[in-house]
Amino acid sequence: MSVKRAKPGPRAEERRERLIAAGYRAMVRSGLEGARTRDIAAEAGITIATLHYYFPTKDDLVRAVLEHTIRQQMLAPLGLDTDWDDGLAALRTLVTGLMRHADAEPGHFRLLNEMIWASREDPALREMIAAWHTDWHATVAGWLRGGQEDGRVRADLDPEATATLIIYVVLGLVTRPPLPDGAEDRLGAELHRLLATVEE
Amino acid sequence: MSVKRAKPGPRAEERRERLIAAGYRAMVRSGLEGARTRDIAAEAGITIATLHYYFPTKDDLVRAVLEHTIRQQMLAPLGLDTDWDDGLAALRTLVTGLMRHADAEPGHFRLLNEMIWASREDPALREMIAAWHTDWHATVAGWLRGGQEDGRVRADLDPEATATLIIYVVLGLVTRPPLPDGAEDRLGAELHRLLATVEE
Amino acid sequence: MSVKRAKPGPRAEERRERLIAAGYRAMVRSGLEGARTRDIAAEAGITIATLHYYFPTKDDLVRAVLEHTIRQQMLAPLGLDTDWDDGLAALRTLVTGLMRHADAEPGHFRLLNEMIWASREDPALREMIAAWHTDWHATVAGWLRGGQEDGRVRADLDPEATATLIIYVVLGLVTRPPLPDGAEDRLGAELHRLLATVEE
Amino acid sequence: MSVKRAKPGPRAEERRERLIAAGYRAMVRSGLEGARTRDIAAEAGITIATLHYYFPTKDDLVRAVLEHTIRQQMLAPLGLDTDWDDGLAALRTLVTGLMRHADAEPGHFRLLNEMIWASREDPALREMIAAWHTDWHATVAGWLRGGQEDGRVRADLDPEATATLIIYVVLGLVTRPPLPDGAEDRLGAELHRLLATVEE
DNA sequence: CATGAATGAGTATTCATTCAT
DNA sequence: AATGAATGAATACTCATTCAT
């Protein structure tokens, strides 16, 4: 077992965390490109030079922020870590929760959106996002399959394809472009109607 | 009839168009913020000073580019200006067309995506995007209603809410995040299955 | 009698005047360098190109504005065109009037100040300012000599040198730098005391 | 004793001084607005980016230059830091010295003049200039009072008001507008005659 | 580990001036 | 006599990154 780098001390680890948290906040505030390394360093209580000691380039910091974001900001707030025995209810909760979250924290979703686009030119980002989406896709497909077993979800649906479709809905949903009033409110119910068995 | 103040000559109109086209290309290539006025001017064959003669600020150019994009790049390429008598077929064509387009021209959709986010802080952009989405929403809802009259689309659906949902699918779709292979291909069929009457 | 240039039509003459007036206002507002030819032209109701037809360079316009300023703005507002038979009273009125004017229209004096400095590198400006100061100097010296003949002004003063000194006071006065309160109010009286014969 | 955050090293202090000196020279040469940050940086042997590291904006540099100017360029060159026991002689020396200085270094006084005008819109400048004028006013008033005690200056003068008047003379004097020849030379003597007791 | 100092390469924007028509 | 179109040359300011200490 070769050890390339001495284990970072506890002090260093804490600084890293502080930098990532500050970076996340700054990027939520000002966007991926708009966030300034100087501000991030200041918010973490250190100088830019020190920031670059921990993260040689801004892209390195961005990667760490994405990792942190997926790990800390995506599961619990959306109920994705709960065990659901009603797949349809889970989906509806997800959609409703996301709509609320997107309104309350648009910067959070702008950041994720920017990272998805940025991932096209950064393999490290791409890998993280792919893993995240794959997880998510599997979760949703699982909900659907569970629903089909319970007879609550239409049996003729392809769970994989429908899960993909739902992920697209979610991705589009957080953009929340200006749309005619009213239709949005009925979105959760409509999705339910599309997926549920007729009898229900 | 004497004209004291001559209207912009044909030369100026052409240069405006050339600038907008160059701006569109540069923004597709490098993004909204990444596009440099210098490059745009050079690509249009003029100096930066002349660019600023036509568009005092970069934001003014961005607005003109969005207008151009909505008008020239969104309708024909997606078949939105065709008369469809089968709403379901129209939708399927739209989704398939968008997927192809999103793969062929990701920069185009990145630009639209950036403009949607930017519109949150620019009333002029917001208005254009709202008008565009409203049109689009009405078109899709119309397709759905037509399908319901023909008995091809499930009668229990709310055309407004479903149209909103489809727009979200489309918005998410063009982001095209990395997803497990295969599921995407069946997306058009799946959407069809969700919406169509069972008999069909 | 040779005629070098055809007499300008009445229309042209009026535009020239309008441009000069607009130039004066803009320079009072924003200073000599701060005034923009574009704004001046717009304020005169014409385009920049036309402004340059009348005044090939900005410096040409500045010269015309100085001429206009000396002619229209310096005599009447300060009572310099009145016939005074009490030189001392005239001086006191001048100083009081200038202080009021400098407070009410600081931009006017900033402009004159800038022009005096600019005149070091522009012979045409220098000539106009020299003529203006010479006139003014002669007027003040005349007041002093008149006062000496009346026995109201100290006979031992050199009217020329004292006039120079008074002009310096005036030039400094319009700058109105921040000074301890109070002393300024007594300035007119003090000047009087310095110049007047003891008996008075 | 460990020092966690090192104070600016001697290197930085020297560069600051060099920048201020270069700024002063450039502003004397080309005026406040005319001085270019590029040239100043080049003259100090650094890049523009480094200039902005020390002085975030040009205005910050201007303030530092004014401070330097008042401290380094106004006292010694004019004999204001000498102890005089003859106030009248001090005044005469001041006036003569200023006239010489104004002829030798017109740019220096143009700069001060511009700063006085600029101080109307910059509180930091205003405060420095007010402090400087207050000092100066107190010095001159002190000279006058001393002269009155010695019986050399007319007892009926108000030292405060006369000091104000003298400052105005000085401010106007450094402008040195074109005036009829000769009168200027007698200015020092004339001022003396105005202020001195008749007997002297 | 940490930082003060320094910078290369931009960046959008400005403005008096010109010229073909 | 007038102007729409065009521009050269600048201008202050920015920001991620580097490096000696």
From TrEMBL, chains A, B, C, D:
Residues 36-55 bind DNA. This is TetR/AcrR family transcriptional regulator. It comes from Nonomuraea typhae. PANTHER family: HTH-TYPE TRANSCRIPTIONAL REGULATOR BETI (PTHR30055:SF234), HTH-TYPE TRANSCRIPTIONAL REGULATOR RUTR (PTHR30055). Keywords: DNA-binding, Transcription, Transcription regulation. InterPro entries: Homeodomain-like_sf, HTH-type_TetR-like_transc_reg, HTH_TetR, Tet_transcr_reg_TetR-rel_C_sf, TetR_C. It comes from the Bacteria. Residues 13-73 form the HTH tetR-type domain.
